[in-house]
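Customer escalation, tier 2.

The customer says the design service returned an amino acid string that "doesn't look like it belongs to this structure." They asked us to rerun it and document both sides in this ticket. The original structure tokens are below, unchanged.
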């Protein structure tokens, strides 16, 4: 990977304005993140990422006053990165004095520039020191009226637009209710109302991945109408989960034994979401259990 192929984001701003939440948002979107890196190491870090042979294509670094005397060299380090040909963006997080004071009181932490004095004195001193960085920032987010989740969502929208919906990983799991529901399922759909292939002797030993079973499960108007409505529901709610900052969703599809109906439906759901650019894994938790025991439902 060349230097231009590396997406590099430098996060800075006022203490208490939400740098940690911003970094976590980018981390959830696949960025390699480093917190509190001294600015003097920025160029070396970027070079290592560029030489990683594609293992690190997106990186985010938090640089702030915790770096002490090193922090004063951040502007120089950013200039050096640009001179070396790296493509970078600076994200500056800001908030009102009142908001920062309230957050410090809630966290009971001391301000790094006023460890023994008033929090307001430290905030004003920090604001003055960061003015040059604020001016050169590519993006500024005022977090005064944002919750942590809203900030994470806004950061994701800023830097992950081109990557679309695939940034939320979706696991679709078929299962049998007789073996219990998946403990980590966010959404569960019970498909035991559909006609059961178990009662067709030729289909009994097969799973929902077999064409004959799929034809049986979807071979009636009720199943087709259900599938259309359920896929429309997923198409509506999944983008809203993303906007709320969710990065992994587990969809459970259950029938009695987890071998026929749930498997066929899970496969159809997985194919539908793949077509819409979600990152999908489909697992059939119980499909083999019944075959080994010689019983299905």
């Amino acid at each position: 990977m060349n230097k231009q192929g590396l997406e590099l984001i430098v996060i800075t701003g006022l203490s208490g304005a939400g740098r940690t939440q911003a970094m976590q948002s980018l981390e959830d979107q696949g960025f390699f993140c480093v917190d509190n890196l001294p600015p003097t190491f920025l160029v070396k870090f970027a070079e290592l990422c560029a030489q990683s042979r594609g293992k690190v294509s997106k990186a985010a670094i938090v640089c702030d006053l915790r770096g002490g005397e090193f922090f004063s060299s951040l502007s120089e380090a950013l200039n050096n990165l640009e001179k070396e040909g790296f493509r970078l963006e600076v994200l500056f997080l800001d908030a009102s004095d009142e908001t920062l004071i309230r957050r410090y009181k809630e966290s009971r932490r001391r301000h790094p520039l006023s460890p023994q004095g008033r929090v307001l004195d430290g905030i004003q001193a920090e604001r003055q020191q960061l003015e040059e960085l604020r001016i050169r920032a590519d993006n500024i987010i005022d977090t005064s009226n944002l919750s942590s989740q809203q900030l994470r969502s806004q950061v994701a929208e800023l830097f992950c637009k081109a990557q679309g919906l695939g940034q939320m990983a979706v696991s679709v799991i078929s299962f049998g209710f007789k073996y219990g529901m998946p403990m980590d399922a966010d959404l569960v759909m019970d498909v035991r109302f559909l006609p059961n292939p178990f009662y067709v002797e030729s289909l009994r030993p097969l799973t929902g991945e077999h064409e004959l079973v799929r034809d049986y499960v979807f071979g009636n108007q009720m199943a087709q109408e259900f599938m259309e409505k359920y896929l429309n529901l997923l198409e509506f709610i999944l983008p809203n989960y993303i906007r709320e900052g969710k990065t992994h969703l587990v969809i459970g599809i259950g029938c009695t034994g987890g071998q026929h109906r749930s498997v066929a439906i899970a496969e159809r759901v997985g194919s539908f979401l793949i077509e819409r650019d979600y990152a999908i894994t489909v697992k059939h938790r119980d499909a083999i259990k019944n075959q080994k025991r010689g019983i299905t439902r």
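Tier 2 assessment: The sequence is consistent with the input. The longest helix spans residues 221-243. DSSP finds eleven helices and nine strands in the chain. Sent an explanation to the customer and offered a walkthrough call.
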